[in-house]
Each structure stands twice: as C-alpha cells, then as structure tokens.
Amino acid sequence: TYEIQYNGKTCSSQFDILNASITPLGNISFCEGDSVGLTASKAGSYLWNTGDTTQHISISNPGSYIVTVTSNFGCSEISEQVMVSVLDLPDAHISVVGSTMLCPGDSAHLMVEAGQSYQWSTGATSNDIVVKSPGEYNVTVTGNNGCTTKSDGLVIQQLDPMHGLAIGMAVDSLFSPYGSPNYWYEVGQAL
Predict the structure, then answer these.
(1) What is the distance between the terminal CA atoms of the chain, rounded to a whole angstrom?
(2) Which residues contact 188 (CB under 8 A, 6 or more apart)?
(3) Per-residue pLDDT tens for 1-42?
C-alpha cells in the first residue's frame, strides 16, 4: 500500500481514486409539484448537502446540490454542484361575472387569468366562456413556461321556477300554494 495525491486528496491506494459526480434522472428544471432524482457516482458512502446519505435522492425544491463521496478506503471527493429550478404553476382560479344561480334563459360568464392555452371541460379553448346550462365546469391552464394547472370545479345551478315563488289568481282573490302566512304587495304597498 502506498499514498498518492489525487486532486488534492490523499488516498491510500491507486485503486482508491474517486470521480465524484451527480447524474440527474430527468429534467433539472421542472414544474412545481414535480421532482427529479439525483444519483451520485458509485462509492462506499455518500453525504449530500441535504443531509441524505444514500446514493440516490429525490429533489422537489429549487437550489444547489452537491454530494461528498467517500471510498471504502477513506478517500473523499466533493462533486460539482447541480442547480435545480422549479417553475411556477399558472393561476387557474375561475372568476364569475354574474351569478352561479341561473334563472331559465340566463347565463354566467366564466374566466381565468391570462395563460398560454386553455382547455375547458366544455371543450372551449379561450380564457373565458359563457354558460347557460347547470353543471360543474373546470379548466386546465397552461402557462408560458409549459406548466399546467387544473382548476377546482365550479358548480352552476339553475333555479327551478316550480319551486320558487308561485302566485295564482282565482276570480278576484290572490292565493299562494305554499301555505300561510302570506304577505301580499302591490307596487310596494301591503294589501
């Protein structure tokens, strides 16, 4: 056994030379909520700047990552850094112009903040739509950076005139089928 100098490190054997490196297992620039795996070159042990001590780690936060690899003979080397960036998701909140409770024949205007492309549950591809039917609506927005977000469902309801206020007339009297007490008004004046 003899000592050699390698990149400023003292190793106990010519077979103890390391080549510390990090291999990303995917894109190191990704959308919020995703992750990328980082794998260190083969060694006896590992110490990442995250505190992890495995050869492979999964990263979901932006930042600079390095690993110190140590051989079974005690020689260590630090890798070059890998920079990870996380891209923002577009805003997919649906705004409503009008009411979510529609009378027959009414409509509601639904829209989202500007993005690059849109895909509504109706099949529409603009950033705003007009709906006249009850149901649940959602939209998937793609931002300029390629990231996508799906909105929560927005429920539009239609009022049923058969279960709303009903007034009938019999000869010269007014009546309501919904029981008493009833309060009648004509042009704002109590009858």
Answers:
(1) 112
(2) none
(3) 344 445 555 565 555 667 899 999 999 999 999 999 999 999
